[in-house]
């Protein structure tokens, strides 16, 4: 019974995921429309700017310098995140379109172009006894690179549907709404970094609140467009299956590549956890910048499901790694 309870503790949804589900429920019952939706959109834009300002202020330069010696590891993680994932997204198109609507497949493709997570990648790497400094550097580098690479990949590969912007419009929008606040946070880190580090537990509510606001406005618009008339239980189950299939393929490929390239056990663990994740914290704000509001609900739904699935699966995987002997590959 205790083992079963421990398993439930590892795989149960976290509080933020429960908040996301509650937000979707509120948007379904009380959608934000008209003038209120316009005001909420403006407030959300400011909150997203604050979110990326804090991302910049929290990024330690020392961790980046310390991790630069592991350039092969970082290069492989970036290739997994921004090359392997998009290729898999394109290869799965026939299967995905046979099971999902075109809008949900567009969301899957967008998911494949996002940067890695930061906090969970580092946490799972530490739990599995991997190379934590390298994980900090790789996850941070992935998020920074994603500010540039994600809009370029969206413009190059998402050629139809979703109201995606042109390459120039996407880069300008990302620069103004995400990159400039991020750079401002980095520039001010020498003065505010210590304060930010001390208050990380409290500041996470700004991160999460920004995401919840985007999700609320996105699903409010989606409810107005009739998302729940278009999306039934069978479609949701199919989406969960496709997300699980994608994650399984990525976990196997990252583990296989790290072994074939001769990385140590600690570095291989870092590659698996940093190269297999996609960031909800970056993905939801980016979707708001890159796509039309009317299509946003369908586009971020795959990311929301994938986010929870990756946390549950990686929690179990990290526990398994932690029980392996130090000499195990």
TrEMBL record:
<dbReference type="GO" id="GO:0005886">
    <property type="term" value="C:plasma membrane"/>
</dbReference>
<keyword id="KW-0472">Membrane</keyword>
<feature type="transmembrane region" description="Helical">
    <location>
        <begin position="234"/>
        <end position="255"/>
    </location>
</feature>
<feature type="transmembrane region" description="Helical">
    <location>
        <begin position="75"/>
        <end position="92"/>
    </location>
</feature>
<dbReference type="InterPro" id="IPR016833">
    <property type="entry name" value="Put_Na-Bile_cotransptr"/>
</dbReference>
<dbReference type="Pfam" id="PF13593">
    <property type="entry name" value="SBF_like"/>
</dbReference>
<feature type="transmembrane region" description="Helical">
    <location>
        <begin position="209"/>
        <end position="228"/>
    </location>
</feature>
<dbReference type="InterPro" id="IPR038770">
    <property type="entry name" value="Na+/solute_symporter_sf"/>
</dbReference>
<keyword id="KW-1133">Transmembrane helix</keyword>
<feature type="transmembrane region" description="Helical">
    <location>
        <begin position="36"/>
        <end position="54"/>
    </location>
</feature>
<feature type="transmembrane region" description="Helical">
    <location>
        <begin position="134"/>
        <end position="158"/>
    </location>
</feature>
<feature type="transmembrane region" description="Helical">
    <location>
        <begin position="12"/>
        <end position="30"/>
    </location>
</feature>
<keyword id="KW-0812">Transmembrane</keyword>
<feature type="transmembrane region" description="Helical">
    <location>
        <begin position="104"/>
        <end position="127"/>
    </location>
</feature>
<feature type="transmembrane region" description="Helical">
    <location>
        <begin position="170"/>
        <end position="188"/>
    </location>
</feature>
<protein>
    <submittedName>
        <fullName>Solute carrier family 10 (Sodium/bile acid cotransporter), member 7</fullName>
    </submittedName>
</protein>
């Amino acid at each position: 019974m205790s083992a079963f309870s421990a398993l439930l503790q590892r795989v149960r949804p976290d509080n933020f995921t429960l908040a996301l589900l509650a937000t979707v429920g509120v948007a379904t019952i009380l959608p934000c429309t008209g003038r209120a939706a316009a005001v909420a959109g403006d407030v959300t834009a400011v909150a997203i700017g604050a979110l990326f300002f804090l991302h910049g202020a929290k990024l330690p330069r020392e961790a980046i310098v310390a991790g630069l010696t592991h350039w092969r590891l970082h290069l492989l993680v970036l290739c997994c995140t921004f090359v392997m994932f998009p290729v898999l997204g394109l290869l799965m198109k026939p299967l995905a379109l046979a099971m999902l609507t075109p809008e949900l497949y567009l969301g899957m493709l967008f998911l494949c172009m996002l940067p890695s997570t930061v906090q969970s990648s580092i946490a799972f790497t530490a739990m599995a006894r991997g190379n934590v400094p390298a994980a900090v550097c790789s996850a941070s580098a992935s998020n920074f690179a994603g500010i540039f690479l994600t809009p370029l990949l969206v413009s190059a590969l998402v050629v139809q549907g979703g109201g995606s912007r042109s390459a120039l419009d996407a880069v300008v929008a990302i620069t103004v709404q995400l990159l400039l606040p991020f750079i401002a946070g980095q520039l001010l880190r020498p003065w505010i970094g210590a304060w930010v580090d001390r208050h990380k537990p409290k500041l996470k509510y700004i991160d999460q609140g920004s995401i919840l606001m985007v999700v609320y406005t996105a699903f409010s618009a989606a409810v107005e467009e009739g998302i729940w008339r278009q999306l039934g239980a069978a479609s949701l189950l199919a989406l969960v299956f496709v997300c699980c299939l994608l994650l399984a393929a990525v976990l196997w490929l990252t583990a296989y590549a790290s072994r074939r390239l001769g990385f140590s056990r600690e570095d291989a663990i870092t590659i698996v956890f940093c190269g297999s994740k996609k960031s909800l914290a970056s993905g939801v704000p980016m979707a708001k910048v890159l796509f039309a509001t009317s299509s946003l609900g369908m586009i971020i739904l795959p990311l929301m499901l994938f986010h929870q699935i990756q946390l549950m699966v990686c929690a179990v995987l990290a526990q398994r790694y932690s029980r392996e002997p130090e000499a195990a590959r």
